[in-house]
Amino acid sequence: MQHVQKYEKTYFMPPKVTYDWVKKEQIKTPPIWCSVDLRDGNQALVEPMSLEEKLEFFQMLVNIGLKEIEVGFPAASETEYQFMRALIERDMIPEDVTVQVLTQAREHIIRRTFEAVKGAPHAVIHLYNSTSVAQREQVFRKGKEEIKEIAVQGAKLLKDLAKETEGSFTFEYSPESFSGTEVEYAVEVCNAVLDVWRPDLTKPAIINIPTTVENAIPHVFACQMEYVHKHLKYRDHVVLSLHPHNDRGCAVATAELGILAGADRIEGTLFGNGERTGNVDLVTLAMNLYSHGIDPGLDFSDMRMIRENYEKFTGMHVYERQPYAGDLVFTAFSGSHQDAIAKGMVCREESKSEKWTVPYLPIDPRDVGRKYDSDVIRINSQSGKGGVNYILKQSYGINLPKAMREEVGYLIKDVSDKAHQELSPEWIYQIFEEHYISAKPVFHVIDCEFESGNGMTAHVTIHHDGSVKKITAAGNGRLDAISNAFKQYFGVAYELTFYEEHSLTKGSASKAVAYVAITYQGKLFWGTGIDSDIIKASEAALTVAVNKISGIAGKEISQDARMNEMMNYIRANYKKVSLDSLSERFFLSKPYISKYIREKSGSTFGELVRELRMDQAKAMLRESNMTVESISGSVGYQNVEHFNRLFRREFHMTPIQYRNERSRVKPK
Q1: Is 226 exposed, middle or buried (0-12, 13-18, 19+ CB in 10 A)?
Q2: Average pLDDT of the residues of the chain
Q3: What is the pLDDT of residue 401?
Q4: What is the DSSP code (8-state) at residue 375?
Q5: How far apart are the first and last CA of the chain?
Q6: What angle do CA 57, 62, 64 make, to 5 degrees?
């Protein structure tokens, strides 16, 4: 960066600076909002919107609640002219909505503009000409009086044509390139225009200040605006408007400080689209107010739909970290952040507070149509125990004991780290289930009967080493008796260290979940059981824990570890995984891997892959609006007809039938 000397500040401070705006703590009422998406946002597109796209976009802006919408530059192109005519002739402008059109201060352009707005129920005619030092000296080569006269003559023509044209009209003037104009001169030109229009209570006017190329620090702009606010003529009948651009990345700050300095109105675009670095982002600006308890008067409760439509109409992309609207703005991957959010949510539930104070979340994600279980806490290798427990609790009703959370958290993180990807709630539960619910590689319990007398006697029937065994043992209670039976049969000494239970679901058919930990040779082993009978849930949890003791598993434990690693790899790559890729990954021959998987899982490699793909397809059908064709490709089947046949063979219904059935039974 060797050429900094050729730059200098190009803005002007007011001749008299006041700082009344500094004394204001917050914006207490929202500004008048004006969307310029269909003009300024549209002209910034590589491919401007078609007529029908602009009509759809206009309707979306109306639905959001915008009452003033700049619809175009009718003299600039035939599409923009026809768009204005279509809105009028199709009677698409609601009574409480005002459309706005832009025109340069040139006679033939002004006349063409009035032809476009003829018959409008109410329209703002937005007149502008450039006033900056650079434009005066380099483009127009005119002095200050000549530039002011262009504005005055344009204002007179607006007034004359409005009398001759059918419709109701309000006038707006912008000293374009204000950011490079002497502030007192810009006010002088604006006042000369106002002297032509003479606004009053029945006919207010709009003076719009555009930061055409943003060049000042936001506090400087606030001082400029306060000067404009205090020196405009007819101030009680003038709406002071701002049109901030984002060349310095400060458009939102400029707008907020400008409002504190006296501005009444903001022109901007959804998500900040516009020429170069764009305009002020109306979504961010409005939601900033919302986060302070000020109703902005705009409805962004279905932010995802608004964003998707915006992307469809404009071809632009809303960045994943875009405030309030991006995919990841409410998402925490960091373990400490997840833990704080999870605890904040619990505290909120316990206190039943009406105020939102959850750490790391400036607003409640539900207010913009987001979900806690899929948007707030998501799991990857950076996540922690609190986040994993939050996902299991929110999605599956499993609230892990605090003593168990660290082990489960590290297990999940390890899988994510090796797979190099984020884990879905379904995947997290699958890992948890395999390690803590279904992990019974050595033995499992077939039946258990109890006799009470001096304590409790358990008659436990197990399947071990290919045969059925029956063991009898006594204990202080049912779980202790079962535990003693295991110790007796396997000849191991462990300690029953931890037990906890809670209800998994509500209602008469509710299930219980039990957590059991045993200590063997200084190491803790956990198991989880789920059943409508709490005794069976406890027995199942203990069985899993005892199965993990290396003393009873022998060599099987290393083989099972390899199988688990293979399964994790298959899950991470289920879309494209093959025996060739497995062979390359694990340095084993394809015939050996095929046989090994069949012996350990009871299924062929192909059956495992198909099951994983179908499980993912079902989740997408339940939880998304993706087409069947898109889902087919997403889970690894490029031929949708083949996918449909496999799905029907597996579940005895088509994907569409499955989606419809799930939507009917989905709880309210």
Answers
A1: buried
A2: 89
A3: 92
A4: I
A5: 60
A6: 95
